[in-house]
Amino acid sequence: GPDYVRAIAPYQGGRPIAEVAREFGLDEAKIVKLASNENPLGMPESAKQAMAAAIADAGRYPDGNGFELKAALTAKYGVPAEWITLGNGSNDILELSAHAFVQPGQSVIYAQYSFAVYPLAAQAVGARSLVIAAKDFGHDLDAMADAIEADTRLIFVANPNNPTGTFIPGDQIESFLKRVPPEVVVVLDEAYTEFLAPEQQYDSIAWVAKYPNLLVSRSMSKVYGLAGLRIGYGIAQAGITDLLNRIRQPFNVNSLAQAAAIAALNDHAFVQKSAQLNAAGYRQLTQAFDALKLRYLPSSGNFVMVKVGDDDGAGARVNLALLKQGVIVRPVGNYGLPQWLRISIGLEEENTIFIAALKKALA
Ligand code: PMP
C-alpha cells in the first residue's frame, strides 16, 4: 500500500465496557463509561419504537437516497434535499469530504488539539496536513486563514471542538468564511451544536446559501442518542453535495438508522431534556473540579477536559487508577495533552461515581 497509508496511526476510541471488565476483573453492570461523548440517556423511546417498526422491512435494502429522512431534514432546516448528504455517522461526511476534494500532495488545514479524525481523513488521501497551533486550546482562525496555500483544498473547523470543548462565536466564523477562497472547502463540524447555550447559538445553515464552499456537518450520535446506529449528515450547496453523493457507498446509512433518525429529529422533548441534563452535569463536574482545585477547560460540549497532574505521566496514571475502579474516561495523550483527561458528562449518579473514583485516584 501507499506509504501515506502505512504511516497512519489508528483511531483510539473509548475502551469498550466488556473489555475493561475482563481486563480488570470487574462486573460489567457496575462499570461507568464516560469516554465517548455519548448521550447518557441512551436512545430516545421514540427512536426505539421507530426502529422496532422498521425491523419488519430490514430484509430489504435501505433507501439509498434516504428520501424520508431527507424530507425530515428539509422540513427542519428549510434547505432542498439536493443540499443534504447522509453519512454513516458524521465521520463518514468528514472522510467523504477528503476523498471528494483533496488529491495526494495537496494540503488540508486543521487546528492543533482538534478532532482526531481530521488527520486520519487527510492521511488516507495522501494529503499534507497543516496543523495550526491552538490559541487557548481552541482554533486560531486568523492563523488558519493565513496558512491557506495555493494547493489547500480543505479546512476542518470543529465548533464546539472535541476534545477541548472550546467554542468560536458565530460572527468570528463568518469573518473566517469571508477570507477563505472559493476553491477551498470548509467543513464546519458541528457534532455538538445542540449543546450550545441559547446565547451562543448561530445560524450556520443560513451561511450555506451564501458560501458555496461551506459544508456543515452534524451528528446524530450526541444529543440525539444514536451513536450505535451510525448516522450523521452534511448540508452544503448542490456543487459539494453532488460530489459527496457520487463517492459515498450506495447504502451507507442502514434502514434502522434512517427510521430512528426521523423519530429522533422530531423528538424535541428528548433533545431539550438531554441538553438540560448536560448543563446540570457540567455544573456538577466543574464544581467538583473546583473543590479539588483541578484546572479544567470551560466546555461548550457534553464533555470536559480536566488537568490531573503536572507531569506527562499524569493522564495515563490517573486513567489507570480510574479503570481499576470501573470508570472509563478518555486519556488525550494522543492529542498531545498527556496531563489531561476528557470526561464525558454522564447521568448525575455516574458523575458522582466518577468524582469519588477521581478523588481516590488522586489521593
Ligand atoms: N466530529 C466531532 C468533533 C466528534 O467529536 C465526533 C465524535 N467523536 C464526530 C465528528 C463523529 O461522530 P459520529 O461519526 O458518531 O457522528
From TrEMBL:
Q: Does the keyword Magnesium apply?
A: no
What positions does the domain Aminotransferase class I/classII large occupy?
30-356
Q: Pathway, according to UniProt?
A: Amino-acid biosynthesis; L-histidine biosynthesis; L-histidine from 5-phospho-alpha-D-ribose 1-diphosphate: step 7/9
Q: Which residues cross the membrane?
A: none
Note the CDD domains from the entry.
Answer: AAT_like
Keyword hit for Transport? no
* First and last residue of the signal peptide: none
* Alphabetical keyword list: Amino-acid biosynthesis, Aminotransferase, Histidine biosynthesis, Pyridoxal phosphate, Transferase
EC number in record: 2.6.1.9
Checking Gene3D superfamilies in the record gives: Aspartate Aminotransferase, domain 1 (3.90.1150.10), Type I PLP-dependent aspartate aminotransferase-like (Major domain) (3.40.640.10)
Query: Which reaction does this enzyme catalyse, per its entry?
Result: L-histidinol phosphate + 2-oxoglutarate = 3-(imidazol-4-yl)-2-oxopropyl phosphate + L-glutamate
One annotated GO molecular function is: histidinol-phosphate transaminase activity
Per the record, residues carrying N6-(pyridoxal phosphate)lysine are K222
Task: Name its co-factor(s).
Answer: pyridoxal 5'-phosphate
Q: Which PANTHER family match?
A: HISTIDINOL-PHOSPHATE AMINOTRANSFERASE, HISTIDINOL-PHOSPHATE AMINOTRANSFERASE 2
Query: NCBIfam families, alphabetically?
Result: hisC (TIGR01141)
Complex formation: Homodimer.
UniProt record similarity statement: Belongs to the class-II pyridoxal-phosphate-dependent aminotransferase family. Histidinol-phosphate aminotransferase subfamily.
Protein known as: Histidinol-phosphate aminotransferase
Species, as recorded: Herminiimonas glaciei
